[in-house]
Amino acid sequence: MFKAVADALRTVGGAIATVVTLPFRLLARLFGGASHAGRRV
Hints:
Layout: H1 2-40
């Protein structure tokens, strides 16, 4: 039973981590792309 609860918490934690980090990843990619584009010009 504890294993099932631990698996559920791990799944929920992973989903929350993904949702929380996704905007930061998008911002990093956006600014990273912008900085690379700025260097090319």
